[in-house]
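Hi U.,

Before I forget, here's the chain from the pilot set. I'm dumping it here mostly so it's searchable later in email.
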Amino acid sequence: MTFTPSRALQLELELDEARRHGRWLSDEERAARQLELTRQQAALEQQRLHRRKLVVLTVVALLVPPLWPLALALTLYLLFPITTRRLALATGTSLLVLGGLAAVLITTLVVGLLMLLF
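Structure:
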C-alpha cells in the first residue's frame, strides 16, 4: 500500500478527529457528520444570500424617500435580527389586541346609542 500526500493528509485529519472524540468514528458516523456539516454550510450560504438581498433592498429603499421607514426597519433587522423580530411580534400582538378592544368598544357604543334612540 502506497501513501500519497492526499491519503496521508486524510489519515491525519481522521486521527485529529479521533483524538477530539476520544475514539475512531465508524464510516456511518463519519458520513453522518459529513452530511450534517454539508447541511450547516448550505444553511449558512442561504443566510448569506438572504442577508445580501436584504442589504440590496435596504439600499434601494434609502434611495426612494417614501420608503425610508422601510429602510429604517430593514436596517434595524439587519443589525439586531432577534430583537427586531421580538419587537415586531410584540407590536403585532398589541395591534391585534387593541383592534379587538376598539371593535368591542365601538360595538358597545353603537348598541347603547341604538337603545337610547329606540
